[in-house]
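Hi, here's the filled form for the chain we discussed.

Project: internal
Contact: R.S.
Residues: 292
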Amino acid sequence: MSSAGCPRCAAPRVEALDCPRCGVIYAKAEAHALATVVEAPSWSGEADDEALELRVRILAIPIALASAALLVWTGPGHFLVRTFASMWVHEIGHAIAAWLCGYPAFPGPWFMPVADARSPIVAVLLAGAVAYAVFRFWKTERRALAAAAAGLLALQLGCTLLASTAARQFIVFAGDGGCLVLGTLLMATMYAPAESAVRRGWLRWGFLVIGAVSFADAFAQWWGARSDCDLIPFGRNEGAGLSDPSVLTELFGWTTGALVRRYVVLGCVCLATLAAAYVWGLWRSAAAVRDN
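And the returned structure, exactly as it came back:
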């Protein structure tokens, strides 16, 4: 009789192939026990993906915004942010506002040429493109995107009907306003569906960085301007005429207080919207983890 016990029931081991108590074959039980000990943890597929996505959604946007704020508050960092990110988003904001109002425009570095008069061709082409997007999203059952595109179509109609003076003010305001709104939308791509190209192709990480630094650049300036008007870039831009704040105050009669207040309110609305998306994204990810 051997002193070793049965691998399954721990009964005293006998000189036989199997245990007289539980009937297990000793050799097979020992092989199974050894495999259990040495087997490495396996990837559990979708459950692990959802757990990782939950951690990403907890950390990504807060870290991106905090890092962007630190960059904006330093001289070299602010220069890099302004040159390679927020300046482009600023000009694209001008351009999108111009297109929505029916004006031909082309965003360039530090300056955006815009036509003096509306173009029916621009209005019709943009409306057609957005309407087609509504149709495609609805047909592929992406209801949220279809609703967003429909809202954009309604916004274009409203902007096209604006008087030319109001449209010009909107276009000028949409520079830093674009940094706030577009920056928020770019950060919100962190919540893109798993099957989307934005998430599968890692584009959302680039969008997150660009959106965070663009938002932080504009919001820090106008938030600080509440107590320090010297932060407002009044004056002339080299080769481009009056700066946006100077155009709004000198040509359109906005007061400095109204100018600052409108940008700050827009920034706070964008932050509140992003916070709601953050909570919703965490709730969705936590639910997916529980389901798996």
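Let me know if anything looks off before we file it.
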